[in-house]
Specification:
Number of strands: 2
Order of helices and strands: EHEHH
Largest sheet: 2 strands, parallel
Structural class: alpha+beta
Shape: globular
Distance between the termini: 37 Å
Oligomer: single chain
Radius of gyration: 13 Å
Strand order of the largest sheet: 1-2
Helix content: 40-55%
Number of helices: 3
Strand content: 5-15%
């Protein structure tokens, strides 16, 4: 629960910030703020789901990651 050991504004790789609309532990609003602090980050809120996104939406998240990597490779 401490500070991260890196500066968010120095992240230089494609980043996506994912949240579940019904997540009761992590606020999607804070995710939107977090995404603004990472250059080029994209914020996603998945409707009707809680916080276990990687388990419930792994295919969507990992497909998006591969797409972002392909975009970066040009």
């Amino acid at each position: 629960m401490g500070r991260w050991p890196f500066a968010l504004d120095r992240i230089a790789v494609p980043a996506d910030v994912w949240y579940g609309e019904r997540d009761t532990s992590h606020s999607p609003d804070n995710g939107a703020l977090l995404a603004t602090r990472i250059p080029g980050a994209r914020h996603h809120v998945v409707p009707g789901i809680g916080g276990a996104l990687l388990w419930t939406h792994a295919e969507s998240i990992l497909s998006r990651l591969l797409s972002r990597l392909a975009e970066a490779d040009g």
